[in-house]
Amino acid sequence: MAASNIKIKLAETATTKSYELSICKLYLHHAWREPSQTHLTILRTSGHQRFGETVANNWTVHDGPDPKASAVVARAQGSHMFCGDRHNSFTLAFEVDWLKGSTLLVMGTSVQDGQWGIVGGTGYFTMAQGYINKGPAKNIDTGSVIELEIYAIFRTSKPMDFVQPPVQPYRDGPKGGPGGQYKNEPKREPHRLERFKLNHGNCIVSFEFSYIDKDGNRQTEGPWGGSRVWKFDEVKLGPNEFVKEVSGTVGQSEGYTVVTSLKFITNVQTYGPYGRENGTPFSLPEKKNGNVVGFFGSSGGLLDYIGVFVRP
């Protein structure tokens, strides 16, 4: 497992010191085609919904997308039962480096869609709480491969001398005009951007977004701007999709200098432009060294200016 794919840093709270775990680019080998060494149906039922059917699993988790060419770093050991949807309950047991002997306790529905919840842990990850995002499944001859992104807060009595100092998101911008009746700031420190929604026509009328804060809670800001209804567009980012750049134009509307258009570039695709590309172009962040995780701005009847929070 590449060292660049795993980051742990000190997460300060008012009452205690906890740690933040973030692991990306792990790949679960869902080898559901039986006979399988890691997937066994132990109670098979009849009926359309397969109610009560139970499967034991010891799925392998790899540091690359090809199970035959990449190393096993953990195993998902437990079971899942059909109860309307699949109910998964398993221990993610790590097997490599300093992680060996530590576990994350995982629960949730479905194998390939949505999220799983992290409800506990052992070893380094005592009292872990968080989630696992699942990327699109890729079908292979033995079943499928699912990309995982793990995020959790945990407490431990073990020494963590190697932990990196916390990386705070920094502000870049704003871009736009000098006006705006309201100065808009996020309620909490943003950690990951999940969705954004725009009301737009000849310019950007209003803007809102949702994000995960540094404590793992979902927050929504906005809408920032006016209430007149033009055209709405909403984008929900994928579990492994990150906004790398926000660009747009600044121009005149109704006698005010405002944000006239916005475009969002992720590691997957480009969204927009929204509004009308009219005026002086801009691009944020100026240094392309991280992910956009949140926004700040100023607004009245329109979106006057906008800036970004960037997490290196």
TrEMBL record:
Gene3D superfamilies reported for this sequence: Allene oxide cyclase-like, Jacalin-like lectin domain
Subcellular location: Secreted, Extracellular space, Apoplast
GO molecular function: carbohydrate binding
UniProt keyword terms in alphabetical order: Apoplast, Lectin, Secreted
InterPro entries per UniProt: Allene_oxi_cyc_Dirigent, Dirigent, Jacalin-like_lectin_dom, Jacalin-like_lectin_dom_plant, Jacalin-like_lectin_dom_sf
Pfam families: Dirigent, Jacalin
Residue span, Jacalin-type lectin domain: 169-312
GO biological process: phenylpropanoid biosynthetic process
A single cellular component GO annotation: apoplast
UniProt entry tagged with the keyword Secreted: yes
Family: Belongs to the plant dirigent protein family.
Subunit relationships: Homodimer.
Function statement: Dirigent proteins impart stereoselectivity on the phenoxy radical-coupling reaction, yielding optically active lignans from two molecules of coniferyl alcohol in the biosynthesis of lignans, flavonolignans, and alkaloids and thus plays a central role in plant secondary metabolism.
Name used for this protein in its record: Dirigent protein
Species of the source: Urochloa decumbens
